[in-house]
Automatic annotation (TrEMBL):
<protein>
    <submittedName>
        <fullName>YueH family protein</fullName>
    </submittedName>
</protein>
<dbReference type="InterPro" id="IPR020260">
    <property type="entry name" value="Uncharacterised_YueH"/>
</dbReference>
<dbReference type="Pfam" id="PF14166">
    <property type="entry name" value="YueH"/>
</dbReference>
């Protein structure tokens, strides 16, 4: 499991990323937003970024923060 720190709205936020290589899936959790999601290696590109942003928008994050966070999560999970 990897733990990344980022800043949203001047607050430090921890993002937990777990990669299951055997099942080719990734689980991402942001406890401060009470949010988590899982996706497969096959999901990629703009469709995944949009799915992450849409899911994050349902939390206590505004649209801009959700978009920024989805971009970061995509980058972190695809460099693993």
């Amino acid at each position: 499991m990897k733990i990344r720190k980022t800043y949203l709205n001047e607050e430090e936020v921890k993002v937990f990323i777990y990669e299951n290589k055997k099942e080719e899936t990734v689980v991402v959790a942001v406890p401060s937003a009470e949010w988590s999601i899982s996706f497969t290696y096959e999901e990629a590109g703009e469709a995944l970024i949009e799915r992450l942003a849409d899911s994050l928008a349902g939390t206590n994050l505004d649209a801009q923060s959700a978009s920024e966070m989805s971009q970061r999560i995509y980058q972190w999970t695809h460099e693993m």
